[in-house]
What does this fold into?
Amino acid sequence: MTVPMKALKSFPYAGKRLKVGQVFEARGRIGAPGTDAHTLAAIGSAVAHTSAPVQPVVTRAMTAGRTRVEAPTYDTRMMTAAPVEPAAAPVPMIVKAEPAEPVEPARTADVSLDDMDAEALHALARARGVKVHHLAGAAKVRQALLDAQA
It folds into this structure.
């Protein structure tokens, strides 16, 4: 008795070198221990080959419209494509920024930068839109404010 089988990997059998996907006849039955067909199936070298295409098994859960399938396996999955949805309108890659509020010119006559401490200088820099490091000292912030003013 022989069983048609399909090779899952390349291996020698009955004096021939089988290639992946090649169909061959193995001696014995798949359910009978000690036969070639059973051994090849057990070690994952080959599977039983059927000439008829395998139909997906539809469970009661699938026919009832449920979304959860009981014990899903490769053989019981529904192989249908999802419906195609119309494409959304393209999103522009460049977003135009709103114009920044005009910054008042620096009034150094009213405020003396030399009399201000680091905390006050940082607050003034934030108010004028000058970016300085949060750990910068008073001298660095003062210099950045003067550079931004020029």
About this structure: The mean pLDDT is 78. Helices lie at 36-42, 60-63, 118-128, 138-149. The two ends are 98 Å apart (CA to CA). The first helix runs from residue 36 to 42.
